[in-house]
């Protein structure tokens, strides 16, 4: 393996994807071009987001009543998720069967039917076309051909999987059952989504100037948390010497970073981190932290990534879905949905909302990530033929009982290389 930068300035002319070669070292090297090449991005839309995966779509708590809907995204594509007549959850593309118009203009709402503004084609809550103006013409003139059938006309359908109040979507009928899809990671999903009714607390939205994968990798990268996030270290929320683990499913695509707050600081770890520690800082309002134990087991933080677009955040008592919506190779939207449980006390809700100050575009912790991801994209883009080194914690893709590792990133790329055929 040759790690010396080649010093060939980027030509910015993308190679055809067929001639792309993954560098030697398999998943311990990530070529920079996977973050910048439009052809790679296009193949991701087709094979990852358009393939047999389950993308997070919405929480059922957002659409409790018949006719409640949200517009969400699977990869780049807009999908309407709506509560049907019989309590079921339906999903279909926001694209009119007539001329492809993205007919639903509200991000969320309640309706009895959908109408395309262009030619007023009408849709029921399952996405079927129920009405076409001037279908039979006017006074014997025009209209659709006599043999044109309205039967089976619909906005492109999207498959739905529901588990404990969370809605997942797939364009591919061959997607396996959601529980099988999550594999060994199902227990971490069920830890937060244990069947209790959820309550949405609010939304945050931001656009970040980096490739979508860098966000996903960020939550598979505990290494950075102990050095980049000064807030976490300063106030004792995360240290490398805490009892922790990184676990994946068998495919490597999903993962969980599990850690436990507290315990005596190890001297060596403390010295390593001393540069970033500000011991003189105190919180003016200690209620900003003030976590209480609420989940079984002794983990205080579990950050889970579910391929291909979801981060489930459980940092102390602040819970959020972070949905990744790719917006071209160099940008993505990060949609945060903060939630709690319907049976939370008002105090608990307040605590969740307070702790949410660590998160989001201006979050005391997350702001670091948004900034560093954009910096990554800048540096990567200039050197497409160079590659990331991903060897922290070894070169394998096995679960590890500590956080000084990039194993979950390696596992992700093991799967990614397969799916993408690179
Ligand atoms: Fe981070």
UniProtKB/TrEMBL annotation:
Transmembrane segments: none
SUPFAM superfamilies: Bet v1-like, ISP domain
Family (UniProt): Belongs to the bacterial ring-hydroxylating dioxygenase alpha subunit family.
Domain Rieske: 55-137
CDD domains attached to this UniProt entry: RHO_alpha_C_ahdA1c-like
Name this protein carries in UniProt: Aromatic ring-hydroxylating dioxygenase subunit alpha
Species assigned in the record: Ramlibacter aurantiacus
Lineage of the species this protein comes from: Bacteria, Pseudomonadati, Pseudomonadota, Betaproteobacteria, Burkholderiales
Gene3D superfamilies named among the record's database cross-references: Naphthalene 1,2-dioxygenase Alpha Subunit, Chain A, domain 1, Rieske [2Fe-2S] iron-sulphur domain
Domain of life: Bacteria
The keyword Oxidoreductase belongs to this UniProt entry's keyword annotation: yes
Keyword list, A-Z: 2Fe-2S, Dioxygenase, Iron, Iron-sulfur, Metal-binding, NAD, Oxidoreductase
GO MF entry, a single one: 2 iron, 2 sulfur cluster binding
InterPro entries named among the record's database cross-references: AhdA1c-like_alpha_C (IPR043264), ARHD_Rieske_2Fe_2S (IPR015881), Rieske_2Fe-2S (IPR017941), Rieske_2Fe-2S_sf (IPR036922), Ring_hydroxy_dOase_asu_C_dom (IPR015879), Rng_hydr_dOase-A (IPR001663)
Keyword Lipid metabolism on entry: no
Pfam families xref list: Rieske, Ring_hydroxyl_A
């Amino acid at each position: 393996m040759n790690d010396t930068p080649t010093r060939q300035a980027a030509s910015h002319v993308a190679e055809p994807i067929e001639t792309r070669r993954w560098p030697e070292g398999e998943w311990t090297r990530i070529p920079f071009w996977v973050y910048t090449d439009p052809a790679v991005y296009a193949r991701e839309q087709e094979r990852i987001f358009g393939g047999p995966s389950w993308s997070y779509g919405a929480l059922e708590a957002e659409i409790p009543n018949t006719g409640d809907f949200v517009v969400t995204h699977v990869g780049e594509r807009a999908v309407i998720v709506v509560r049907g007549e019989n309590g079921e959850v339906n999903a279909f593309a926001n694209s009119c069967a007539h001329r492809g118009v993205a007919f639903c203009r509200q991000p969320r709402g309640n309706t009895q039917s959908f109408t395309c503004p262009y030619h007023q084609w009408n849709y029921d809550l399952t996405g079927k076309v129920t009405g076409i103006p001037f279908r039979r013409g006017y006074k014997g003139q025009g209209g659709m051909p006599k043999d044109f059938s309205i039967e089976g006309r619909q906005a492109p359908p999207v498959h739905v999987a529901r588990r404990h109040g969370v809605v997942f979507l797939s364009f591919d009928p061959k997607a396996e059952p959601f529980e099988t899809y999550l594999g060994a990671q199902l227990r971490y999903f069920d830890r937060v989504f244990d069947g209790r009714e959820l309550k949405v607390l609010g939304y945050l939205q931001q656009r970040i100037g980096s490739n979508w994968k860098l966000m996903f990798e960020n939550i598979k990268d505990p290494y950075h948390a102990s050095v980049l996030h000064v807030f976490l270290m300063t106030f004792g929320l995360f240290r490398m010497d805490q009892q922790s683990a990184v676990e994946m499913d068998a495919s490597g695509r999903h993962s969980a970073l599990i850690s436990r707050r507290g315990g005596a600081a190890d001297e060596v770890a403390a010295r390593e981190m001393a540069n970033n520690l500000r011991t003189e800082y105190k919180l003016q309002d200690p209620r900003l932290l003030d976590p209480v134990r609420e989940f079984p087991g002794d983990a205080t933080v579990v950050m889970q990534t579910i391929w291909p677009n979801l981060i489930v955040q459980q940092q102390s008592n602040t819970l959020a879905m972070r949905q990744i919506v790719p917006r071209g190779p160099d940008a993505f939207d990060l949609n945060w949905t903060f939630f709690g449980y319907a049976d939370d006390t008002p105090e608990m809700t307040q605590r969740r909302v307070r702790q949410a100050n660590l998160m989001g575009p201006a979050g005391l912790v997350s702001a670091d990530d948004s900034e560093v991801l954009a910096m990554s994209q800048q540096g990567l883009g200039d050197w497409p033929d160079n590659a990331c080194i991903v060897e922290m914690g070894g070169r394998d893709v096995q679960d590890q009982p500590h956080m000084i590792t990039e194993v979950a990133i390696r596992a992700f790329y093991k799967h990614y290389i397969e799916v993408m055929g690179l």
